[in-house]
Amino acid sequence: MQNIRRIQITTSRMVTDVFAGQYQSVFKGKGMEFEEVREYQPGDEIRSIDWNVTARTGNPYIKKFTEERELTVMLLLDMSPSSFFGTRNRLKMRLAAEVCSLLAIAAVKNNDKVGFIAFTDKVEKFIPARKGLRHVLRIVSEVLNFKPSGAKTDINEALGYLNKVMMRRTVSFIISDFYAPDFRKMLAAGNKRHDIVAITVTDPGELELPDAGIVKLEDLESGRSFLVDTSDAALRENYRSQAVQRQEERNALFSSVNVDTIDVRTDMPYTRSLFRFFKERERRLRIR
Q1: Structural domain that includes position 154
Q2: Are residues 37 and 84 both part of a single domain?
Q3: pLDDT for the residue 268
Q4: How far is Cα 209 from Cα 230, in angstroms, rounded to an integer?
Q5: CA distance 41 to 146
Q6: Do 232 and 140 share a domain, yes or no?
Q7: Domain tally for the chain?
Q8: DSSP string for residues in 205-271
Q9: From CA 278, how far away is CA 13, in angstroms rounded?
Q10: Is 63 left (phi over 0), alpha (psi -120 to 50) or beta?
Q11: What share of residues in the chain are helix, strand, coil (percent, to 5)?
Q12: What SS3 state is found at 283?
C-alpha cells in the first residue's frame, strides 16, 4: 500500500505541474456523436440531410452531430519475466508502473475512462475501463502486486484481445520491451481501429555489457543461463551492435505502421521522454 501511495503522489504531482494541459490538447475525442435532428437551414451540408425524416415530414431535416470529448484510454502492460530486470536505479517493471500511473491519472483528471490489460504470452488480467481515482489506484495496485504465470511475450495476443473487448476507438498505450515474435500485421490492424502508442522500456544493461570479467547471465524468459567473458572487447562490441540493430528494426517497424513511440529508460527521468512525445505530437496536430 505504501508503494501505491508513493507512486500516486509522485505521478499526481507530475500530471498537475506538467502534463495535464498537454494530455488534453493531444488526446481529444476523435469520433462524432449524434445529438439531434433539426430542420434544414440554408448553408447546411446537403450530405447531413436525414432522408428518412425528410420523407416522413415532407420538409428537409438534417442530423446534427457533436464531437466526442470523452476518451477511453487502455494500458496494455507487458508483465513477462524480462520486465523484471534492471541494473540501474529500478526494475523495468517499476518504471512501467510509474508510467502507467501517470497516464491513468492524466486521463481521469480529463474525465476519461481508463482500462488495463496485463499480458505475457497470454492475457493475464483485464480491468474494464472506468473513471475515477479509486479505479486508477486499483490498476496501479495490480501493476505492483499481480503475479503473472506466462513465461514469454506475445504482443499479438494482447492486441487481439484489445480488439475483441474494445469495439469503439481507444487511445491504447502498449508498455513493453518488445522482445516478441513478429507482431507487425496485428499492430497495423490494431492501429487502424485504435490510436496506439508504443512505450519501450529499456535498461542500459540491455544495450552494453560492462567489463566485469566472467559473469553468469540468464535469459529470464527461457530460463537458460550461461557464462560470458565480458573482458572480451570484441564480445562487448558485438553485444552493443546487436542491441543497436534491434532498436533500429523496432523503430522502423513502428514507423512503417504509423505508430507513435516513446522510449523510457531505467537510468533516466522518464518525464523527459513523455514531454518530448507530447510536444512533438501537439506540433504535428497544429500542422494538420
Answers
A1: 2-28+69-287
A2: no
A3: 92
A4: 7
A5: 57
A6: yes
A7: 2
A8: GGT-----SEEEEE-TTT--EEEEETT-HHHHHHHHHHHHHHHHHHHHHHHHTT-EEEEEETTS-HH
A9: 17
A10: beta
A11: 45, 25, 30
A12: helix
Q: Coil, strand, or helix at residue 31?
A: coil
Integer CA distances (angstroms), 142 to 62, 117, 139, 162, 176, in order: 47, 10, 5, 18, 16
Task: Determine contact, residues 157/174, Cβ cutoff 8 Å.
Answer: no
Looking at residue 34, its amino acid is F
pTM: 0.81
**pLDDT digit string, tens, across residues 227-282:** 888 888 999 999 999 999 999 999 999 999 999 999 999 999 988 898 888 888 87
89: left (phi over 0), alpha (psi -120 to 50) or beta: left
Amino acid at 156: N
Give the Cα separation of 252 and 202 in Å (integer). Answer: 17
In angstroms, the CA 73 to CA 26 distance is: 13
- Mark whether 53 and 109 lie in a shared domain: no
